[in-house]
Amino acid sequence: MRVGEGIIEEILEDGLAKVRVNKDSVYVVCGSCFGAERVVITAHNKIGAQKGENIQYHVEDSHLIYGSFLCFILPLLFIAVGAGSGYGIGIELGYNMVLCAIGGAIIGILISMGFWKLVDRNISAMVDSRPCIYKILESEENDEMEEDI
């Protein structure tokens, strides 16, 4: 289980809250990415934290593994299969194999994007992978958190 810290920005309906996290938080997968300075996530607010409070939340490791597979591994598999298919078609038809492999890789990227959207919508409807708020931080911890964010 991964733990992160953030500040409640907005209380939503159905026991949810928008939480602003800093780029050093464990949940932010790519802290070095452009725009990761102010990431806002939606989390379950089962403890009733209020707007402006500093909190800690946790994320199940299985949700991070699923997200990593969907974002990184699956597109690489589609690109490899597309490039290999394109290369084979180039050999079979007598075309330039490198150009056919590049074309196959591009088609693989497009297929992975479509597959990604389809699978993500279906699984998101079945599995709730949002983090859960489990602790409101004390005032000493609040001061340190505000300096980080």
Question: Could you name the key traits of this structure?
Answer:
about 150 residues; alpha+beta; OB fold (Dihydrolipoamide Acetyltransferase, E2P); 2 domains; five-stranded antiparallel β-sheet; about 50% helix; about 20% strand; elongated
Describe what you observe in this structure:
The chain is 49% helix and 22% strand. The chain has 149 residues and is α+β, with helices and mostly antiparallel strands. The protein folds into two domains: 2-60 and 129-148, Nucleic acid-binding proteins (OB fold (Dihydrolipoamide Acetyltransferase, E2P), Beta Barrel), CATH 2.40.50; 64-126. It has a five-stranded antiparallel beta sheet with strand order 3-2-1-4-5. α1 packs antiparallel against α2 (97-126). The model has no long low-confidence stretch (mean pLDDT 80).
What's this, in brief?
This protein is 49% helix and 22% strand. It is an alpha+beta fold and 149 residues long. The chain has three helices and five strands, in the order E-E-E-E-H-H-E-H.
List the helices and strands and how they pair.
Layout: E1 2-11, E2 16-21, E3 39-44, E4 54-59, H1 61-93, H2 97-126, E5 132-136, H3 139-148
Antiparallel strand pairs: 1-2, 1-4, 2-3, 4-5
CATH class of the largest domain: Mainly Beta
- Summarize model confidence as the mean pLDDT: 80
CATH homology superfamily name of the largest domain: Nucleic acid-binding proteins
* CATH fold-level label of the largest domain: OB fold (Dihydrolipoamide Acetyltransferase, E2P)
